[in-house]
Amino acid sequence: MFSVSSLRQWLRETPDLMLSLFRHVEKAHGPDALQYRGGPAAAKLRKTAGVRMWVTRAPERLLLNVCGCGMVMAESRLCELGYEDQIQDPDLEQLTRMLKDLPPDLAQLMLHGLSLFSDAPAHRFAHGHAEELLEAALSDAAPLAEADYERLSCANRVQEDADEAARPEPDGTTAVPREEHGSEVVVEPDADGIELETVRLNEAGAALAGRLDAFAAAVRDGRVADGRELLRDTVSWVRERRALAKAFAAAGAEGEWADDQGWSSAQTLVERLREEQRRQQETDRKTRETEQALDELRTMFDMVTNDLVRENVRGQIAEFEQRLRDLRGDASATGAVRPADVRAGAPGGGTETGTGSGPESGPEPQPVGASAEGAPETPRPEAAHGDGAEAPSVTAEEAGPVLREEAPGPVTRTEPEETPDGLRDREAAHAEESVSGGGTVTTAGTGGPAQVREASRPETAQPAGPSTGAPAEKAPPATRTPAAVPVPRRSADPRGTSTDESPAPAVPAVSDVWAGTPSPVEVLVAEGRPAEAYWLSRAAGAPAHRTLALAFADAAFHTSPARASDLQVQAEELLDALDEGHPWDDDRDAYLVLLTAAIRSGLSARWASSFLTAFTSMPGVPEPWASVMDELVHAVRQSTEIQPGDLGKPAATPVTDRREEIGDRARQLALDLPLRTIKLQRGTIVLQTLAAPDGRLGRTLKLIQGWAEGRIEAEELAKEMEEHYKRSDAADRIIDTTDRAKRTPKQSKNDIHSAAREQLRAHIKTVRDLLTTALRIASSLRPSGGRDIGRDLMRAIADARQAEPLPGVGGALLALLLRWLDGSYAPEPRDTGFRPSAEGLLHLPELRWHVHEEQDEPDLEHPDALGALLGLLGPAAPAVALRCHRDAGDLHLADRLLERLEHGRIVGAAVPAAELAEWRQRIADAAVTWGRKCAEEHRSAQLLLAQIRVQNLLKPEEEHGFTARLLDLEGDDHGDRFGERFRAIAAVGRDLRDLEQQQTAKLYRQLDAAHLPEAEYGRIHRLLDRGKTVAAEELLSFARRGGALPAPAEPAGEELSRFLTGVARPEAPQSTRRGVGARWWAQHYAEDEPLVQNALSGLGAWQELIGERDQRKIRGLVMSVLRLLGLTVLEANVEEARYGVTRLSVRADITESTPGYVAALGSQARRMYKVVVIADELRGEGPLRHLPESAIGANLILYLQPLGTEGRRRLALASRNRGQQALVVDPAVVGWVAARAPRSFRATQRVTLPWTGYTPYTPHVAGLVPPEVFKGRAEEMREILRPDGSIFLFGGRQLGKSSLLRQAVEVFQKAAPDRHIAVYMDLLKADIGHAEPPEGIWRVLLAELKRRGVIGTNVSDRAVDVDVIADAVQQWIEAEPGRRVLLLADEADAFLTADAQAVYTGGGQSTFRTVKRLQRLMETTGRSFKVVFAGLHQVQRFNHLTNVVTAHGGPGILVGPLKPQAAVGLVEEPLAAVGLTFETPDLVWHILGVTNYQANLVQIFCDHLVAYMQQRAMPADGRHAPITWDDVQAVANLERVRELIAERLRYTINLEDRYRVLTLLVALRSLEHGYTHASRPSELLEAAHEIWDEGFPLNSERQLTIFLDEMVGLGLLIRVPGEERAYAMRSPNVVNMLGTRNELQSELNDTEFDLPYDYNPHAARRSIGTSGGVQRMSPLTEGQFGDMLAHPTRTALVPCTRALGDDHVERGLRLYGSGYGLDVISVGPGDNLTEAITANSRRKGSRILFVDLRGRNAEQVGEAAERLVKHTGGTTHDADATPGTPRRYAVILCSPDATAEAEKTGAGLVLPQRWTVDGVRAWPESPFGSPQERRGLIESTGGWPGLVETAMHNVRSGMRQKEVLQGLRELWGTPDAATAHLKAAGFTPADVSRLTAWAQFYSDEEYADGKAAMTPGDIAAAFFDSGDDDPLEAAEHLLKRLDGLAVLDPNKPGGVRLDPVTFRALKTIGPAQ
């Protein structure tokens, strides 16, 4: 009856007693007496929750000790009550009186002790008279007061040893020293107490350290300081720290706080304690819920009478009890007695004869009342515990000293696996119901026959009896007893071990749930639950034909007339596919189920399936049931319509009606099918061919129509079915046969793919099903023979209701059909398909679920599935099921179960609304908890993936797979499927950990094989032990090379912390009037190390600056200080000097070769620095106020006063949003650099940048990335610089190609400045390949090589032969060994395209003439001359061509995203330099995931992150707060950041619209099917063709594959490995940045896509350089320049306004002429034209006179044009002039109103125009890629050149298109800007007056709709009086003039209108006019 387990359970429920006992023990024996590893802290033992926790997890030793202590206290109390003489040897009566006189709790504790300790007095009575003694112990004696417990002593039981107070416990823990005479402090060994003590001790340590520093300073200065109290306080602090360390150990912290560990380690241990506390709280919560569930199950067990359900409930109770034991930590015990049973005095509540747990250990079954031979009828106290349930008897000596020591070995206890608590009596009460009269039944234990079925034990065949061993009485036989179903179960021990030595017999895997009277399946079917019966059958392993019959039955009873025909056809297909011979012949029950289901569906379909048409009779079915079946089959055959509840009025549908219905459907299909289409055009052709009248489907439909009309016999339909549709592959055969006749030769290589094939199969199946229906109707239309269907059926049903029920599952289903006929059973129709719904199983506890075919279904493979499903036969336990769903994370199932409960769909489970609401809240709370768990697990997996990325353990496709899996599992849109999601995330983590473990094991092996010195070996080994594989591998690489290991890297932010510690020292020097020296800080930071000479010189110079007023001396001293700080001064000039402030301009080089952190202070400073020396102490804005407004570059302030912590904080605040920034160097900075890193500008920046507003990132300098933030690319750099490296470099836009080439120039030339020449050439800006021919590259190369001295200046720049340049280069290289020339040709796409054009020579056709000549130069110089072509997709294409010269350039260099380590460096290093560190390392990987490892995107993100963090308040300690997860998320969610990243990503995507379409398609498929989905080319081609047929013709799959492979090379896609080509997004993160699903779909549907742009000279304009930082383009197109020179007169007029760019015409002309060897001679407005013409006549060669006549009138321009036409010598008939003759050309720039007279001379007229949509497309590298974007640009700018150029510049600089265009539109809302535009466009005041009034006539909306058209009639009517000579002519003249000013646009409805910018400008100034 009593055991340690029952003692534990009872003590848990008596916390008040335990509190009293604990107080007594703590007082008598010290708090350490109750401590054990993992136990609650001492402070917790004063609370009820802590008591329960202690009892739950305490070792048996401590429980027995406490029990023994309580026994002695009870004995002491009995002595006080006068029982002193009777205690040692009481009889039963005396013992009973004693127990009655003791308080009930103390009495029960004593009774437990008497039972557990064999040497205790009266031990012999504790078992034999347990019930009587328990009743005595429960008497109402007066309770003891608290003082009594403190007074009573257990000294005779405990020998206390004060010396062992801090002695280690046997379990390894150490008790916390208690307070004694003030020498020790009491630390509460829990997380709260320890954390408070940690904070206190930290603060005390800081104060003590300050005092120690002051003491040390006094000693250093030779002063005597009193250190007595300091020594005592130091010793006290050390003692307190060790006490805290012991508290950590006592609290069960994982790891120790060693003496050499600091506060961070202590905080880590505190966090671990808190985590343990949270876990314990979670365990307590689960324990409470499990106890509640257990109570519910026990209540259910009392209510159940069905043996099968009782068997199932019994098993569930056992599992819950095992779970409870596991939660309580009592893993050693296998059974427990409920305290409630003990208190109630349950007889023998745990003293059964027999052992083990169920069939594994039980003996052979025996009749009730029989006992084992020779076994006593009463259990013996000394019996072995394997044979009884008696508690172990332990002597006091065996137990050892109570509460102090443990026995030498563990107390051996082998308790039996008991039945679920409290069930034995219940089972005994039901035993009679479980025995059938004389029959044999199957036992759960063996499956064999037995005389009786033992039902009183859930897991054993041994009969239960009372403790006395008396046999139970036999019960009368029951009338019907369901057969027992052996339920396969898991072992009760979760580890698979058994407490019994006997082997467990095999558990049957299959159980016949169809057997028995009634069987479980029969019971469910009779209750109208065929779906549940189906799942139970499947779980029990029923044959397939049985489960199929039940599935058909469920579908039939829930079908509707509209779907019944389809159901019947589907059923026939499935029945035909069941390849088991003839299973129905041997299984009458299943046959009856199938027959009944066919009748039910046939009644709704009104035709008989083949199963019914073949039915004759069913032998063995008694009357009248046989008659019922015959009548029902006959009714279906006659197409009788029977409505449920209206059985008396059956109506047979006429034959003609059924035939007409089928015929109508066939006719409709024959009309519809030819009109239907399939996405794949090839599939549409096949469908239309099949549906044609002579096609296969068309002929079939025609046959059906003929049969319906009576023209064709049913035999023809049967023949059609047999010949064409009968085979299982009939549909595919029909498709392939038809396709073969229609496909092209190219199409024959591939079959129709799956999507289109599935659509075709569906259409064929529709026709086949209709043919099947027609055949069934034809076979069922038999004459009724005059029978009255209704009367005969009613009579048969009435007779059946009076007869005995038909047994078996089939009989139950037939009875259910009769209930459906009379309307008493009316299930709701549902479209669930043939597979039964599993919704009816949601209320079953312990049923595991999984997803199958996107549906939630029970996991029938789980070993507990059958046992759980048997719960269908008993009362529902929805609360338990809800709890199970919640605990498993299946909250979606819990929600559906609650919905069923709310609608009353679970029989016998009425739940009050309040309880349902409570459960709703619980589920909502659980969703929050599970969401957090999933997020934490997901974040952990992300971090693990990031770490593995760094180790390069993943192939690209593997990395994509892991990333995609994690992205699919990210977010909250998983429908409350938290458990499924959590398990999937955990699986990813396991896979990643496996990879990491493999790598770690590999590194361990490499380390062992390296044979390193012990110190180095230990260092690397420790890294591996901590999981730092990247660092370990790096050190191993050093070791393998034989080099010494580098010093350990300092953690980010640690250096700044040490610096600030020195800044904040209280003894540091304070500000003075003239300044402060830096020596104190230098000595402090040097830590007794000697200073180098450079440091001493710098410190001396700083000291001399104090108080110095001589400018010359200040200049020299500043140079010395700057040298110390890392700048080598070349020149220094004092610009201004006044009292206390000196400003200097300095030219200096940075001493270090390694780039710094901020480009503004390094590469972009151009060696120029502004230096300000400030001697006075400043407040308020501080030193920055002395910076001049112009100081926007690199500034340094030498501030001679110490800033301190607060001063730095104020400095950071003053730096915010300030245009002038500076590094402020104070004495602390000088001392730090002198001590730590003399002459290191990087070190200087690290301790000054954190308090500035400088940002290290430059995200908007495309191609000009400074070296400070250029990371990685080492492999690509080597390939560029190697002579035999590749000559092609390609990658997507904004991935760093240009930056890499520019860095290569610096690296190449720095290696050998005298022998290496590197030339960087931007072919796009040079217009080579656009306006310039490919050979123009030689001209640009010549100019650069002449400048660099490779080619002499005597070589002319014009018309030089290519061979001359090549020979000169070769001669220079050969003149001296080691000379090399590296030509880096960037933006080479257009160049290669142009060079690929065929040129016809004397020898035939030639391509790549320029590339070939460059390659020949490479070969002749042995590759000492090398060219590298860099670009986008065109470079990639030419590199991949195998049949052209470019194929010999070697494998291309792909520039993609950064390698992980380089990307991490780009994030961490610059941020650390400005004082920003991350709270946790995984935040870096989150940033890299968002930015796809692309350097430009990383810079965009981090630039905004720096700005975000710099705007936050700086804490009092003077340094920025760490970057948290919330900070990163806040920046990631900034709209500007997301749009910038998306825009940069699209730079590559928009290279071609075909790339764009394919990217959008792949992205949408990822969003639809998951990120792991990969798309095949054929699928993409079909979808792309539907969207843009011109860009993706259907016969271009090979070309599409080429595009996809190019996108792989550009870093957009990745090819997924496999037998078939498939592609996916390279980084699934990119999909999220591109937009939402709706946005991507809209873009795909609404965008106008263009084919690739072909060069058009009449739209292309050349770049003429930059002005104001903006790239300017020529006002004239290349075609216009060509027309100008080709004009017969060779003189051209260019009328141009300021708005059209008249200032840039000359520059464009010069660039164009230089390409053709033409000099341009300028003649300005003030020059003498006659003299210019005369001088030009004397010159030789061809040249152009550019005459600027702006501002001259028409007569003057006409006169000049006439003279120039004569000078150029051209005539209108000059076309036949000799080619090559030197010619003179003239270009006249004039105003648009001054051309009338000049045109009469025959001079050509070239009209500059605004940009158009097509013209913008010709802009090289235009960021406005789509037609919509280009239209938006023109709408906002009007196409005016200056505005278009500004917009291009701003977008390229990082602004969003939307912002730029919106700003331009708003610009014209200001009158000043509007007036300036109209003036620049050439408007006169009269024009403005008239047109302003005109513009007011129309609103912006009317203008946009094209209603603001300008016609001569409207203009004349509006502005010219009818009295004028000719108003219409005046209006026409005005429009002509406006056209000359280029302000008119074509109007869509007709006519013309003002351009949008001019219209807005006129609208703006209208009100002012």
UniProtKB/TrEMBL annotation:
Biased composition (Gly residues): 346-359, 436-448
Domain of life: Bacteria
Region (Disordered), start-end ranges: 160-183, 331-511
Biased segments, Low complexity type: 470-489
Residue stretches of biased makeup (Basic and acidic residues): 160-170, 379-388, 421-433
Gene3D superfamilies in the record: P-loop containing nucleotide triphosphate hydrolases
Protein's name in the database: Uncharacterized protein
